[in-house]
Amino acid sequence: MNTENVKVIKIMEHPIRILQIPYLFPSATEINDPKANIYFKYLLVNFSSIYYSVGALLHMIFNLKRGIADHIDKDIGNILSYHGASYFLFRYLLNLKFIIILFKQFSDFETFGKPNNFDERNKSINKWSKVYLGYQTTILVTMLLPAFLYIPQCKQENLEKGLQEVCGLPIPTWLPFRFDYFPVKQIVYLYECYSAFVVYQTAGMLSYTMFASCEHLILRLEHVKHQLVDALNEKDVVIRRQKFNKAVQYHQAVIEMGTLLNKCFSPCMMVHISLTGPFIGVVGYTFLTNIPLDSTALLVGWLVSTYIVCYGGQRLMEASISVGNIMNRIHWYDLETDLQRDLILIIIRSRRPIFLTAGPFGPITYSTVVTILKTSYSYVTLLNQTM
Fold first, then answer.
1. CA distances (Å), 312 to each of 96, 262, 284, 355, in order?
2. Rounded distance, CA 305 to CA 272, Å?
3. N or C: which end of the chain has fewer CB within 10 A?
4. How far apart are CA 197 and CA 199, in angstroms?
5. Is the pTM value of this prediction over 0.90?
6. Distance, CA of 42 to chain centre
7. Could you report the per-residue pLDDT of 5-56, keeping only the tens digit for each?
8. b/e map 240-254, b = 16+ CB within 10 Å
9. Is there a contact between 222 and 237 (Cβ–Cβ < 8 Å)?
10. Backbone phi, then psi, for 234, in 5-degree steps?
11. Where in the cell is it found (predicted)?
């Protein structure tokens, strides 16, 4: 694919705008020449939220030193989720230059033409991106607001167990000074809200961006099928061979896009999959023992983010296999012998599907969801036996 002439990315406008806010994607004026300071800006934004996790870690350490094990599962869940989401974003950023190339290839309509129904599908992806952003915001608000509901319960626990928890915070934290008074506690509360939105909102939108990338690759595979059928149904022998050769070149270019897709997102997904099982196990244990609104919201948000990527990976695999399922749409028995032989090669190649992978964890499909849930159940069982 020729990306030198592509100066504007014409796909996923809404997800890209959201990723530009925390400097995870360059502005439109820097697309063709991303500046190095975008990495520095993102690190500053991410570093500004680091105490969200550090405070939870220190809270857990000091409580364990005093022999207090209350809320340790919540501390571990917050630490795992924050660092998992942060590293997920960081691995994405390391591959940003390849992601820009991939998005430019998706935006190249000169080499092989514009995919059928591109405008409708791209509009739909942008529309669902807005819906998903609203859903994520609802999840985060549900995670952060219930802290006020648990203030009476928190104060009662402090009296009964001799604890010193600061009530009214979404995330238990530690500071080297007393802060259970106005306005310091309110400032800490707002900081924790800011940090949650910076990390979780952005990580969730990146998950949707991966799904949308799979959808654009699926759109290209469908276009390949259309061009193959159009070529093989052509009556003129010379034109048929020319169209067929171009469709084969297009198929090879899309396969290379699939390779680039994995180069961009496979490291991110490796982080995602490796930490999702332990995280869901810890938060699932909290959910089974207390059913708190905040932990439940975080659990649901993480599960949905995982599912949409697995859903995109499953659809991508099925779409790449379906390229070879065109025999019922053509009169293959009327084709010349050499063209029939070349068609067999395409069918054979399509039996090796394009996958979205997660490093050594293999393809991301529906089976990945089952594997994660099995791993999570193991962690829930372990925690249930030891805590």
1. 20, 13, 25, 10
2. 10
3. C
4. 6
5. yes
6. 18
7. 788 899 999 999 999 999 999 988 888 877 778 888 898 998 999 999 999 9
8. bbebbebbbebbebb
9. no
10. -70, 135
11. Cell membrane
Using CA of residue 239, residue 240, residue 244, residue 245, what is the dihedral sign?
negative
The C-alpha atoms of residue 165 and residue 178 are separated, in whole angstroms, by 11
Q: What are phi and psi of 336, to 5 degrees?
A: -65, 155
Confirm if 167 and 155 have CB atoms less than 8 A apart. yes
Q: How far apart are CA 269 and CA 277, in angstroms?
A: 13
- The DSSP string of 161-220 is HT----TT-SS----SS---STTHHHHHHHHHHHHHIIIIIHHHHHHHHHHHHHHHHHHH
Of how many residues is the chain composed? 387
pLDDT digits (tens, 9 = 90+) for 178-192: 899 999 999 999 999
8 A C-beta contact, residue 311 and residue 209 = no
For 25, 282, 361, 363, 387, the CA distances from 266, given in Å and listed in that order, are 18, 25, 10, 9, 35
Tell me if residue 363 falls in helix, strand or coil: strand
State the DSSP code for 8.
S
Distance, CA of 380 to CA of 282 (rounded, Å): 6
Using DSSP, state whether 357 is helix, strand or coil: strand
Asked whether the CA dihedral 268, 287, 168, 62 is positive or negative, the reply is: negative
Select from 200, 210, 202 the least CA-distant residue to 314. 210
